[in-house]
Amino acid sequence: MISIIIPVLNEAENITSVLEHLSKNSSTANISEIILVDGGSKDDTKDLIAGFAENSPHTIQLITSDKGRAKQMNNGAKKARGKIFYFLHADSFPPKDFDKLIIAEVAKGNPAGCFKMRFDSTHWWLRLASWLTKFSWRACRGGDQSQFITRELFEEIGGYDESYIIYEDNILINELYARKKFVVIQQWIHSSARLYRERGIWTLQYHFWAIYVKRWLGADADQLYAYYLKHVKQYRAPKPSQEKAEALLHAKKVMANK
Does the keyword section mention Hydrolase (predicted)? Predict the structure, then answer.
């Protein structure tokens, strides 16, 4: 069975929609539990999770952790009962029957992988970036595509490297690629482009590329985080009205299809 593990921090805006989506698009026969790991939310995230859990067909656990996705996901894995872990961002919506798709891949001998990913934006660059995720190239991977991995392999690797405050997804992916144990399931997971809208598409993409290259050139976890704090965390671009309208339109479409 699969344990879904979602790190959360101030996700009141999204978390109910994600939980509803997971409930409607997976079977309780395949999902051991959904574990939400809160890193210190100051909004209504925890209350919304607790309220949803009361009537959910799935078993939902809410646990607390020190802030940091690597720490949160590792702590979730420690509580998980499933033989397969599925790590998911709180603003990503996996495809219908994602649980069956994951189990089928593991049965084929593929112990780890992700889905191809589509951003909720019509901007040409983000559409192109989304299209490229269907390929198995290492440079096309990222945490927004989600991550399934068997418990056995996760524990063998040692989980996520908690020294990385950012880029933790990619450190694990690097290890999986080095072991040639990674597959891309050819079904779409839909992920939010909210960070691109907040920071500006080209500005954020440039800094993401810079972080990727810095790590390739040997930058350590502290250096990557310092760069992120300076150039990404502290910067917020004004939201163009067109992109606001785009986001609202997509949200309406998602709700209409539920």
Answer: no
The closest alpha carbon to 174, from 196, 157, 191, belongs to 157
Inside any domain, residue 140? yes
Which residues constitute the domain of residue 87?
2-193
The strand pairing partners of 143, in sequence order, are none
pLDDT tens profile 1-28: 999 999 999 999 999 999 999 999 999 9
Q: What is the pTM of this model?
A: 0.89
CB neighbours of 252 closer than 8 A, spacing ≥ 6? none
200, 217 Cβ separation under 8 angstroms: no
Contact 126, 119 (CB under 8 A): yes
Residue 190, CB half-sphere, CA atoms under 13 Å: how many? 14
Amino acid at 48: L
What is the distance between the alpha carbons of residues 108 and 206, in angstroms, rounded to a whole number?
A: 38
C-alpha–C-alpha distance, residues 93 and 250, integer Å: 13
Q: What is the DSSP letter of 189?
A: E
**Whether the Cβ atoms of residue 50 and residue 62 lie closer than 8 Å to each other:** yes
Which runs of consecutive H residues, i.e. helices, occur in 81-187?
98-107, 124-132, 151-157, 168-178
CB atoms within 10 A of CB 42: 9
Phi, psi of 159 (to 5 degrees): 75, -160
Residue 248 in domain: no
Q: Residue 169 — φ and ψ, nearest 5°?
A: -60, -45
